[in-house]
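Complex record, two chains
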Amino acid sequence: DTGVSQDPRHKITKRGQNVTFRCDPISEHNRLYWYRQTLGQGPEFLTYFQNEAQLEKSRLLSDRFSAERPKGSFSTLEIQRTEQGDSAMYLCASSLANRDHEQYFGPGTRLTVT
Amino acid sequence: DAKTTQPPSMDCAEGRAANLPCNHSTISGNEYVYWYRQIHSQGPQYIIHGLKNNETNEMASLIITEDRKSSTLILPHATLRDTAVYYCTTGSARQLTFGSGTQLTVLP
């Protein structure tokens, strides 16, 4: 399967703990995006990378959130000091830079903060 | 504030055309309209996008009104596998944000 993969698929953590999610994009895609989706709502943009450069961040991305894409391939999203309000599905997507309207999404990581 | 307005749910008979409306009255002149769908427990899937001309691909057709304030996604022959939440959004493709979409249920 050469689609976007995310790991883990599910994560349960206690409030105050740090969590890290990984996204592996489609190999030739130079753009990578992170989204958050809460129950009953559509995905909301968090941030995106072109190669290893993080080019845009949403106001939703608080200081407790950090994303990296060190070699322009896989990406990680870390949440520090998790809060119950962080419970959501975290989606990753990738695209070619000249076809950013056509994003390919992974299955997501569902985070539950207890 | 939501940039687009969609009905929360619609039903369609299998084999018939599904017409999903979207209002985007505040769209700017250079903003595209994008449609994605999300089948339960999966990530969203790109369907189609357009600026002002009608567009068609292997999945669907997109009809945009002349004033660009609304659009309609057409699935010409809906199947049970088309049951999903359909999202319409506008703006920058690099910062897509979706509203709550339309739950389309295709009935046998």
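Note: The CA atoms of residues 43 and 107 of chain B lie 23 Å apart.
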